[in-house]
Amino acid sequence: MSEFWRDRSVLVTGCTGLLGSWLVADLVQRGARVTGLVRDWVPQSRLYTENWDQQINVVRGCVQDLQTLKRAINEYEVDTVFHLAAQSIVGIGNRDPLDTFETNIKGTWNLLEACRQVGGVSRIVMASSDKAYGDQPVLPYDETTPLQGEHPYDVSKSCADLICRTYSVSYGMPVCITRCGNFYGGGDLNFNRIVPDTIRSALRGKPVVLRSDGSYIRDYFYIRDGVLAYLHLAEQMDRREIWGEAFNFSNELQIPVLEMVCKILEVMDKTHLKPIILNQAKNEIKHQYLSAEKARKLLNWQAKYSIEEGLRETIQWYEQLLNPDSKTLPLLMQK
């Protein structure tokens, strides 16, 4: 394992979330000195269930509070920031756009401004999303595709991306942007997402209910690949020429929602549970997937996990969460 992260002071915002909890665990195992910004107590988060919170500094607060961010960066002499905190659910964004804008847009400028004012931060990786591109006629999206979100969550990500770009260009800030597809993996507690919802429904012997007609195409990205992509990008940021750049990370598979559901049911041997299709989705992009050519060529990055590997490990995690007598999770966590 690389010595790059040993003794490096790292701030992770959003560390109770899916990506954040996996990233914290990996950074701790690599010897980093991690500080996590925590807004809410989420008892089922991997941060707590696997006791990673006992091995990091925990700062209570939210990204809307500039002074909290400045204090954390200054007090813990932060070198590297992974800014993951966000309101990340499309449906919640539609119901409450102002909170989504406050968290995702103001939270981003607060984080960057705190780094600028305190100084000493050598690399900032900001989590954006493929949704920042909005709805586009040409697929797959690459990093030259215009940022033109139209719905609240998409717009919040388009704006946050542009704010990162201006802090890099105008102030020379060492920031890079990640745009990934739909993360899935053990630890995702947002059961309105298709992967955990399908697994939970199948474990309970019920058919999953789809909001859409099942034809929406998405880019599904396993969380372990996501962590490795974030770490790899940060390690590359000694190269000043990539500051201010955005990178798509994807396994470049284009999978309709219904096909993803069927893959999960097949792995679980639950193909008799036929999905219920409501066809009621609103304010969602129908077809969206990414090209990762720039990351492959410029960063020499590639995904490690197949969709089947990712799903098998993910299903094992939820079996342990929802059926505590299961013995599969300890085997998974030893990898």
CATH topology: Rossmann fold
User: Main sheet?
Assistant: 7 strands, parallel
**Oligomerization status of the protein chains:** single chain
Q: What is the beta-strand fraction?
A: 5-15%
Shape, principal axes of CA atoms? globular
Q: Please identify, by name, the CATH architecture.
A: 3-Layer(aba) Sandwich
Encode the helix/strand succession as letters: EHEHEHEHHEHEEHEEEHEEHEHHH
CATH superfamily: NAD(P)-binding Rossmann-like Domain
| Radius of gyration from CA coordinates | 19 Å
Number of helices: 12
Taking the alpha carbons of the first and last residues, their distance comes to: 14 Å
Mean model confidence by pLDDT: 93
Number of domains: 1
Low-confidence stretches: 328-335
CATH first level: which class? Alpha Beta
Task: Compute the number of strand runs.
Answer: 13
Order of strands across the main sheet? 3-2-1-4-5-6-11
Folded structure, characterized:
With 335 residues, this protein is α/β, with parallel strands linked by helices. The chain has a single domain, classed as Rossmann fold (3-Layer(aba) Sandwich). 41% of the residues lie in helices and 14% in strands. It has 12 helices and 13 strands. It has helices at 18-29, 46-49, 66-75, 90-95, 97-118, 152-171, 194-203, 223-235, 257-267, 293-299, 307-322, 328-333; strands at residues 9-13, 33-38, 57-60, 80-83, 123-127, 175-180, 182-184, 209-210, 217-218, 220-222, 246-249, 255-256, 276-277. The strands form 4 sheets. It has a 7-stranded parallel sheet, sandwiched between helices. It has a two-stranded parallel ribbon with strand order 7-10. Helix 1 links the parallel strand 1 (9-13) and strand 2. Helix 5 (97-118) runs parallel beside helix 6 (152-171) and helix 7 (194-203) packs parallel to helix 9 (257-267).
